[in-house]
Amino acid sequence: MSKQRQFVNVAAGVPGPKGAALIEKRKQFVPKGVGNNTPVFVESASGALVTDVDGNTYIDFAGAIGTLNAGHCPPEVVEALKAQLDKYIHPCFHVGMYEPYVALAEKLTQITPGSFEKKTMLANSGAEAVENAVKIARKYTGRPGIISFSRGFHGRTLLGMSLTSKVKPYKFQMGPFAPATYKAQFPYPLNKPESMTDDEYAQFCVRQFEDFLLTEVAPEEVAAVIMEPIQGEGGFIVPPVSFVQGVYNICKKHQILFISDEIQTGFGRTGAMFASTHFGIEPDIITMSKSIAAGLPISAVTGRAEIMDAPNPGEIGGTYGGSPLGCVAALAVIEKMEREDLSGRAQVIGDKIKAHFHALQKEFPVIAEVRGLGAMCAVEFIDPTTKQPAKELVAGLTKGCYESGVIVLSAGVHSNVLRFLSPLVITDEQLEEALDIMTDVLKSQYVTN
């Protein structure tokens, strides 16, 4: 018997009549290639709760794909935006400079890992941050090659798509791709050979990377390695610390820049402000977006000052890069995260989620692994008999969850992973209710399947 729901209410059905009408209109005017994870049209949102146009209320475990660590509509951000709107909206930093851009650039140089002088440029999206980071790395080194990793995700632009590993839905029939991009193997600890210890597996993966520089591209031709410290779209894969440090040290040996893609891992999600901290590295360049500004479109590239100064005026940036609205929102978000210790809160949330699913793992052999750092955690599902990815089960779980009032996303190259990206301001009561609902859905779906 399910507990009484305090926060969730889906009495109107999902979608309800207003939502269904809007879906039909959406089909008429919006291309099908613009995907949607849920048939929900949002009317309002606050904290970790979302209300749709039919009055249904959901607990948000997706956070706009990791964009809302500070929650929906944080009052501090709303007030900062209102105050900025009364001053000016967008004079364009390339034409008329403004203080919020410089203030945010300064703040990001202070909070990102690295005990060296840094500088920051601002853009609009995660993909733009990646594109500019690569341009800067190539300009600084004079080398063309960029290495990313299997299962990595770095955006949907041409270069971002070229660096991304998952073919469908991101790359299928959209080539040719950008030249001088290469993909090395990334660890997948769940699939570690049983004969290997964890340390042996990590060292094996480092040797694979060393061999890659012999068989695929010479290090003298590589400008940068770009790595998500924890893979996001790839399934929330947490690599061994010694692997990340091994690749980092190899980069140092060959004067290859190390770009840490912290677009999904940044701003408190993993229990630290930036995930690179967990691995004891100081990246040459860090890319940031998503939760930097509570949903305002802004991104950043922060790196060693001498590297960031390599491009000449006009070679990086863009008309809307670092908009005043995004800057003041980001400054308000960072201040809130520091004041309320949302990184510490992420650790509490993650511990609760992982403990919950570890307990369920004993009852449901379809749960292959519960993993993650901080509140960036996930559950991978496989068929316990065939050991094949349980993609259909996860599709049923995500559907059953939103129909029951919890919005959650899948991930992984096989789409057999549930990933959790709830706002870090979620209350314990909301978290427990969402987990209770997900448990009910799992029990019903697993029996069905």
General description of the model:
The structure is a single chain. This protein is of the alpha/beta class. It has two domains: 17-60 and 341-420 and 428-448, Aspartate Aminotransferase, domain 1 (Alpha-Beta Complex), CATH 3.90.1150.10; 76-340, Aspartate Aminotransferase, domain 2, CATH 3.40.640. 38% of the residues lie in helices and 16% in strands. It contains 13 helices and 15 strands. It has helices at 17-29, 63-66, 75-85, 99-111, 126-141, 158-163, 198-215, 241-253, 305-308, 324-340, 342-361, 391-404, 428-448, and strands at 42-46, 49-52, 57-60, 118-123, 145-149, 181-184, 222-227, 257-261, 285-288, 299-304, 367-373, 376-381, 406-407, 409-411, 417-420. It has a seven-stranded mixed sheet with strand order 4-10-9-8-7-5-6, sandwiched between helices. A four-stranded mixed sheet has the order 1-2-3-13. Strand 2 and strand 3 form a beta hairpin. Helix 3 (75-85) packs antiparallel against helix 10, helix 7 packs parallel to helix 8 and helix 12 packs across helix 13 (428-448). GO terms for molecular function: (S)-3-amino-2-methylpropionate transaminase activity; 4-aminobutyrate:2-oxoglutarate transaminase activity; identical protein binding; pyridoxal phosphate binding.
State the helicity in percent bands: 25-40%
| Helix-strand topology string | HEEEHHHEHEHEHEHEEEHHHEEHEEEH
The structure class reads alpha/beta
CATH topology of the largest domain: Aspartate Aminotransferase, domain 2
**Main β-sheet description:** 7 strands, mixed
- Which CATH class of the largest domain? Alpha Beta
Question: What is the level-2 CATH architecture name of the largest domain?
Answer: 3-Layer(aba) Sandwich
Enzyme class: transferase
Pfam family, one: Aminotran_3
Protein name: (S)-3-amino-2-methylpropionate transaminase
Family: Belongs to the class-III pyridoxal-phosphate-dependent aminotransferase family.
